[in-house]
């Protein structure tokens, strides 16, 4: 794809033209092997999540004490029917992980969606009205940023009560400041530009202005931040699950699975290894994607 | 210089107020009777209820209540644990050194590996070493550390029987806390083997807690170094005929460390959060585990007071980092 | 023996879109105590040429040359260690941006004494004394107190004086000044130029003055080299060049000087320096040249001796057969010609 432009010596090829912007973006993005790998993994996880009911070999919640703590198939005592072994009450680990992918993705996307929705509104409000509104909102966000994110999430969940919904809400609140700052910064730079003044003069309302004119102009950093936000959300939600404050058993959420498995760490390595590996790989994929997107979009933002 | 310090200190006052406000209001959200939540006495008779209501000022308007709460906090009164009836501050003081010891070891571990790795990666940009460091650090950054702890236990404790699984020291030893830091106390106690037992117990928690800061420091050092190495003054240093080592270790590093110091400071906040997970995994008797235990015992005064104290600690560390930043960056020191 | 001898130097940078040749076949000789002006628009390769001489081409740039010597020493085969003994001592350089060229984290005194201690082996005290002397020589008032100042506490002009002090600290045989006055206020510019010329005469050192400003060259240089898109276009004594420029590009540059403007309007050169994607096949200046022909658009001229210097042009302005040659090669009507 990019090889022909790479090899063309400019001195000898006076007619070479600069690449198209979209092509250039893909050029930068695809040159980053990590980002492409991240994208591939994410697509795979999404497919697994969508097809969970079809591809999971067993029901994730059916218990069978006769089959408790069966090792993975390549170890003695394991069977191909339960490829990654079973947990202490005989549930198939692979099936639970497949259904867990659904939960984790849902958590990541829902949390970031809530956060973006709330964050952009707050940021837009702060950026448009300035003054005391802005100071209040931004100070509050600074405080949230000062506090360690997981500590804040833990306290919020402890107060609201453990559970997946509360955990998601807590994580959404914790990552909120990033979006508020982004949206506010975008508003402040964009409102000083001529086209916003023009729209204002032509009678566009403030609210209309915010959403139709300003928002589309901060999509690039928002996309990057969203990708990184999903990874934080999955990680923090899993941590809450692990602490017993997130999704509650028997939910196949990956962090919750680890919490259940903790006491068996000395006897059955597989019950702790696989769910954590799933978290690591998924989070890593979103981070790789976010980094790749930022690198690919950044030169444009600077230009 | 004094003015610089004073401005910085005054800047944290709103943050402090905000944290107290959060702590104050969060506890109001707990369903149930606030007297029972705060006083820690369950099933009390109406007369006592009335008395406590007055004592806590809960019959007054909400902002007066906040005023009362704030003045108590400023006097160091954070309430009593519902379970032990001990003042929250005392419990915190007893457990905090354990967390600090772990956190310091973790940040040292992260610095000792992260800084050189980042510097070398920047100097050998796009080499295999660079790609390796960046790959590993992104993995570390994405690591669910609660799982990482379990995996390390699986490998080092279960498989090779090298390190202990939990606690700060072997139960064989009883060490009277003098400094609260076991590494120091064991050396003072002259009990044979106690020091090494404490070291052994520290290894895995240090690695687990240090992993994320290590990753962040390596990444940050690399990018700061790359940026600095492209600066005009590095070209000047080269034009002076200085050795490559002097250019990197003195002219570049001094400037690259400025953003890195900030990141390290921010990581200390992350470290205290990570301590909650790490301490839970390794049954490390610090404030993180104490907080989690409090949640499950519904010990709300401990939760409120502990979270507030941790918030204040993080805030203070950030302030110190800010001041240190001013010290090593003359541009800030002189202009503000 | 010439102080500097460069033959057929080229510097290349690989980029996303291909290899960029920043310097292309540059040859030059510089005698001891000579002042050479290197002129060209930004991106003409004048700085890169001198950075190559200093050995400061950043990775992944590649330097190639048939000959590259300084004071009789071959710089192409010199060891890294020996080169460091030369740079900063016998050949020194000052840069365009004094504010960013000094390290913000160290005091002026530290940065100044560093060179003295490295190359002259002075101890702390001796270096300090010499630093004060140097600051006096470059006209910095109350030099002792300035030693403990940081670069951001001083003005751009003062910082450029510090840069000059640092450069002349070890009595170099050659000083390369890369746009030393461009970032400064007009009033300061003249002072810095005066300072450089005074120091050059006192010490009889070679001086290369890189600039895009013909006026600066006119005031300072004995010889001038005009560069365009990485190549030398013309190279002659300053007096001759200013009296009768031979290359159309030189002529256009001179015509753009305010004091030479005719009829109250400033002359401009239409178009821009070719970039990575639009390097012409023939003469690099042909797209902007008023006298371009079919021939000059397709065949690149060689650098050849001409009128006491060198030129890279098919039709030098002083050539008596010039008009006939242009007619013969099918002239192209351009905007510039009208």
TrEMBL record, chain A:
An annotated Gene Ontology molecular function: dipeptide transmembrane transporter activity
Lineage top rank: taxon: Bacteria
Report one GO cellular component.
plasma membrane
* Principal localisation: membrane
List keywords of the entry alphabetically: Cell membrane, Membrane, Peptide transport, Protein transport, Transmembrane, Transmembrane helix, Transport
Classification via InterPro entries = BP-dependent_transpt_permease, MetI-like, MetI-like_sf, OppC_N
Q: Which GO terms describe its biological process?
A: protein transport
Q: Does the keyword NAD apply?
A: no
Membrane protein topology class: Multi-pass membrane protein
Q: Is Nucleus one of the keywords UniProt gives this record?
A: no
Q: Which residues form the ABC transmembrane type-1 domain?
A: 101-290
Instruction: List the protein's name.
Output: ABC transporter permease subunit
Q: What is the lineage of its organism?
A: Bacteria, Pseudomonadati, Pseudomonadota, Alphaproteobacteria, Hyphomicrobiales
From TrEMBL, chain B:
Query: Which CDD domains does the record cross-reference, listed alphabetically?
Result: TM_PBP2
**Superkingdom of origin:** Bacteria
Q: Name one GO cellular component term.
A: plasma membrane
Note the topology in the membrane: Multi-pass membrane protein
* Ribonucleoprotein recorded as keyword: no
- A GO molecular-function descriptor: dipeptide transmembrane transporter activity
Subcellular location(s) of the protein: Cell membrane
Cell membrane listed as a keyword: yes
Q: What is this protein called?
A: ABC transporter permease subunit
Question: Which organism encodes this protein?
Answer: Microvirga makkahensis
From TrEMBL, chain C:
> InterPro entries from the entry?
AAA+_ATPase (IPR003593), ABC_Ni/Peptide_Import (IPR050388), ABC_transporter-like_ATP-bd (IPR003439), Oligopep_ABC_C (IPR013563), P-loop_NTPase (IPR027417)
Query: Gene3D superfamilies, from UniProt?
Result: P-loop containing nucleotide triphosphate hydrolases
Q: Which Gene Ontology terms cover its molecular function?
A: ATP binding; ATP hydrolysis activity
Q: Where is the ABC transporter domain?
A: 4-254
What compartments host this protein?
A: Cell inner membrane
What membrane topology is given?
Peripheral membrane protein
What coarse category fits the chief subcellular location reported for this protein?
membrane
Protein family membership: Belongs to the ABC transporter superfamily.
- What is the official name of this protein in its record? ATP-binding cassette domain-containing protein
Originating organism = Microvirga makkahensis
Q: Write the lineage as a comma-separated list.
A: Bacteria, Pseudomonadati, Pseudomonadota, Alphaproteobacteria, Hyphomicrobiales
